[in-house]
């Protein structure tokens, strides 16, 4: 089956930790710190591949991770950067954050390549922390943690024109005749399980893309049959062609069919149902002259007063197709053919520091008036925060209060003027 949705886990690379080491050379008895910086973690990058038209590959493999940065080394050696991971997707793929459904990125239009998750920065080695008062720093900065997301990939076909209609009205036949597409055609319902795209070419080179949206049934907007799986593909289209069996070869009423499909479109997305529409009354070569009623006249009397043009066509013989296609092109010119691109709603770079990580607050047994605050929570905070900036320092103060660290220090017996040590960071405690 056509794969137009997939749920995957993505993770960027963690930054490599800074290294702690000291020069150990002959005739240099008191060598200074020479621990190198950690490498940058790899990014998670999504890239459009024009040769792809499904998300099938992502149904077989569900976890994708970039490479972590390497730890820094001795003699100021910089750790190796982690390799990026590039995920290829078809044009029109929307990336959503799985729990909220918010859009992270829309791989459409000019957006051919996007970094979705940034790798963590590498931590600084202890060579950066030597000062006049601390000449042998025995600590280094941990690498910034990786970012991770569970995302839903969703393919929304990029086409200017959507071709809709009940099963077996001739949509695939029409597409095969007016474009370079070669859809599978057979005389039974739901043959078409995936949207077929084709390009309608004109002599002046000014064509458009048309998509045969799989046959709908009543209740599609509620997920009946395959409705929800395919209604999303019409969201980018600018003009809708309703195709009906004017000859009623299967006993269907073409007028009722158009009302039924419009009802499903309105229920799914009212904005889509309000877009320009045109009716292609197909199979006119199967209408017998002895019929008392003229279905074409009936369709025109019903819909043309509503501003919906009706074209009598035969997808098999080609009768009436030129008039239909030129009219659709005129409609597109009035609207404009710029691709609809959905705006981002979720920004992974804003992911906050996790507050459920552990930490410890202890009074030093070796130094009087010194309190040690350590743990993954503290490492992560220091990795994210630039304390040299006013904004970073304000965040740090808020972090101490909101995380409960100040309360824990007071419970441990800290007094004004005592020292708080958080790995490479030291400060005096005052209320």
Automatic annotation (TrEMBL):
User: Which positions fall inside the OCT domain?
Assistant: 345-431
Please report a single Pfam family linked to this protein: MMR_HSR1
What the entry lists under PROSITE patterns is as follows: G_OBG, GTP1_OBG, OBG, OCT
Ligand binding (Mg(2+)): 172, 192
Quote the EC number.
Answer: 3.6.5.-
Where does this protein hold GTP?
165-172, 190-194, 212-215, 282-285, 314-316
SUPFAM superfamilies registered for this protein in UniProt: Obg GTP-binding protein C-terminal domain, Obg GTP-binding protein N-terminal domain, P-loop containing nucleoside triphosphate hydrolases
Q: Which cofactor does it need?
A: Mg(2+)
Q: Which GO biological process entries does UniProt record here?
A: ribosome biogenesis
Q: What residues does the OBG-type G domain cover?
A: 159-333
Cellular component GO terms, alphabetical = cytoplasm
Molecular function via GO: GTP binding; GTPase activity; magnesium ion binding
Domain Obg positions? 1-158
InterPro entries per the UniProt record, alphabetical: G_OBG (IPR031167), GTP-bd (IPR006073), GTP-bd_Obg/CgtA (IPR014100), GTP-bd_prot_GTP1/OBG_C_sf (IPR036346), GTP1-OBG_CS (IPR006074), GTP1_OBG_dom (IPR006169), GTP1_OBG_dom_sf (IPR036726), OBG_GTPase (IPR045086)
Keywords assigned:
Cytoplasm, GTP-binding, Hydrolase, Magnesium, Metal-binding, Nucleotide-binding
Which coarse location class describes where this protein primarily resides?
cytoplasm
Function recorded in the entry: An essential GTPase which binds GTP, GDP and possibly (p)ppGpp with moderate affinity, with high nucleotide exchange rates and a fairly low GTP hydrolysis rate. Plays a role in control of the cell cycle, stress response, ribosome biogenesis and in those bacteria that undergo differentiation, in morphogenesis control.
The cross-references to PANTHER family, in alphabetical order and at most eight, read:
DEVELOPMENTALLY REGULATED GTP-BINDING PROTEIN-RELATED (PTHR11702), MITOCHONDRIAL RIBOSOME-ASSOCIATED GTPASE 2 (PTHR11702:SF31)
Family named by the database record: Belongs to the TRAFAC class OBG-HflX-like GTPase superfamily. OBG GTPase family.
Q: Which HAMAP family match?
A: GTPase_Obg
User: What is the protein name given in its UniProt record?
Assistant: GTPase Obg
Q: Which organism is it from?
A: Diplocloster agilis
